[in-house]
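Researcher: I'm preparing a figure for a lab meeting and need a structural model of a single chain. I don't have an experimental structure, so a prediction will have to do for now. The sequence is pasted below. Please return the structure as tokens so I can convert it later.
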Amino acid sequence: MSTTPEETKITSLASALRTEQDRRFTFTCLATPASVGIARNAAKQAALALGCAEEIAENVCLVVSELVTNSVRAAAHTGIRVTVAEDVPGHITVEVWDQSPGLPQRRPAGPLDLNGRGLGIVEALAVHCGVRHENGGKAVYAVL
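Model: Understood. Here is the structure written out token by token.
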């Protein structure tokens, strides 16, 4: 399996996070379905570079995947910003900003529904999560 230039750049950027000063990794991408996998891989690299255990890095991936998927639906083909940071020692903050001012809505999901579980998954993994309006859009965040 070959690596795309975006994935190579993300891996290089994540590896630069090994100093104590750099506890934040931010990147932007276009809100398209292909960006979900790229964001998930970048988030895992960032979490590992921040010193997270594999299990926590996997949880970061899951949260990023759910939040970016929501951004793709809410703000398709516009720019989104993903941040993975250790703002508080021992906790990783994941934040996804998109250009849609509409707040995410948790929907009930039936046993056969393919959608509607993302925010519940994020809430289950996070010690705190929320949303705020920012720069004409919104930032959804979760602290793990």
